[in-house]
């Protein structure tokens, strides 16, 4: 089986690792080895699961012995609290994994990151290019971890010019099953906003995230890429589509409350509800050659209608009765056909 | 210095000084110079220095004197002024032979009455806009129950039908149509149906927007929002400032172009007027995307409003992207230095930034179109800039005028001066070789050329302008 590609997916017990492994296995001539410190709850058919942590020093051996060509690293916990345990998993995980990859001379690595690493600041250009400095908050849980991971990735690129390291920086991920900062924000009863501020947001569907990861695994795309739909959407519009009642708070009070250790108000730093933090999608379009299939409106509508129906009829009927979803699906397939033609 | 705008008598003296730069006197200048530096004028130092009658010193004293002691100081001036050696642009002494705002206002009681009237109407218009905005976005009104919103909407409609600015109200129009003063029942019924319909329509708009069903472009521009704000600016443009726009044909029918304008008047109304003028009078009804300073995004409501009416934060990346999308872009390279100009420095252009706008134009090969706005300088009389207060509340400048901050928000009502906006001939940038944006020599030359053109256009207009309020 010489023509078989062998891909290592980390974090297969988590949402992203699990889905991505399943997506990769849909292709032919692919063998997927999944590692995680925990056993995945949902079984992926054809997945070669090894119970191991990425921080294990013997990872190099594994990489060499199994003749792995591509590593897709998806073990990352989006935790808002900057605890030592999570830092250990997220940042030390990446650093140890990249170290092992360098030693085992792995030529192709794909990392998942977020547009939030650029930071939401008043003097940002409206659309940030990939070479913009990473000015995100240095103390905020998962964003700090992402920035640290990006730094390791940059070092790796400099030290291993022969290897291809793809970093995908996604917009706010939303999807019916995802647990991301944005879905947490949209699922809360009342969404806190800052009075008089309405920044643009870039929202990407979880399915598009998976497609982009698979796309990056299948090709050779060195460097970092912003990945999100071209069009942004104002925060208030997003909340409206999600059927949320915005709760405007005076911004000095909100900042004050957070800095004094009061309620967290939102699962992201307040600056992201105040200033825009949008990526420029030119590189995605032209070099990565990837196009998200879902419009941001469809993504948020799907989340909202799922929640609404689930409340009334339970989880089982949610998909069957979802009119919005089917309408959007029809539209999306039409667009895809038009694009192919 | 701060006493610069004093007296016509002094003006003559100072002009003689201009011709005779060697005549200097021992200045009480240190204090004055400090006051100037504190007021943020380091880049925009007045082009010449006129000394008032001997002995007056201290910024506060001068400010107080300016508002009251106008007449008493007349004639006492000595030839004490000292010109600035740093004079660079074409200074035109004729600028200062124009009548002063206060003099003109005090001399004509009918002007005062008219100005007060317009001020009241402006407040009313602002109230109407706020009401319309409340309907568009719940951000402007925290709790919004739909029936109440509908009542509001109907109430406002009746209000605007009855009052309507300038007697164009529905009822007034109906009464003109009917013989005598009789209004029959059917007319009233018809009116009611119409009002009910618009009320319901507007309630629908509220609900629809609450559901998030509206469109913005990638920069966040929201057409419905613009429709709600435009009446206020219409009023300002046509009635309040009676803007005369010249040279609109210099703006291309389509394709990229960079408008470069002077900035004045404490609040950025000049951008709004330029935008509205081009939108209404250009053959292709082009929409201008003006670039605003990075301080505005930090302000609640202001940031929201600017984004929704299609304005964009000023930096090279944004300007380049807009131009590459073939937009018409307006920049105000003077920035805060221009907007926060003291009254005495009026119509003296400040430094044109670092020439970033020229680099952008060269890189995108967009023509530079100079624009001169005359009249905006006199809308507020900024006598002094308080650095302490500005620092305290985080503003880039804090103007002190005869009315602000003493009268609170009412002190923000601008004076109804007559405005002229002149759009000059385009300066092409496509004849330069590629990569010219890195030629610092060329960039600074072009920057100066644009700046001098704008200054010349201002001078030309000032020469022919007879009155600040009547044009």
How would you portray this structure in words?
The complex is a heterodimer of chains A (341) and B (471). By secondary structure, chain A is of the alpha/beta class. Chain A is built from 12 helices and 15 strands. In chain A, helix 1 packs across helix 6, helix 3 runs parallel beside helix 4 and helix 10 packs antiparallel against helix 12. By secondary structure, chain B is α/β, with parallel strands linked by helices. Chain B contains 17 helices and 11 strands. The interface between A and B is medium-sized, with 35 and 34 residues.
Overall strand count of chain A? 15
Intertermini distance of chain B: 28 Å
Number of domains of chain B: 3
Secondary-structure element string of chain B: HHEHHEHHHHHHEEHEHEHEHHEEHEEH
Shape of chain A: globular
Radius of gyration of chain B: 25 Å
CATH architecture of the largest domain in chain B: 3-Layer(aba) Sandwich
Biggest interface: chains and residue counts? A-B, 35 and 34 residues
Distance between the termini of chain A: 36 Å
Total helical elements of chain A: 12
- pLDDT < 50 runs, ≥5 residues of chain A: none
Tally of DSSP β-strands of chain B: 11
Features:
heterodimer, A: 341 residues, alpha/beta, 7-stranded parallel beta sheet, two-stranded parallel sheet, 12 helices, 15 strands, globular, B: 471 residues, Glycerol-3-phosphate (1)-acyltransferase, 3 domains, 7-stranded mixed beta sheet, two-stranded antiparallel sheet, 45% helix, disordered N terminus
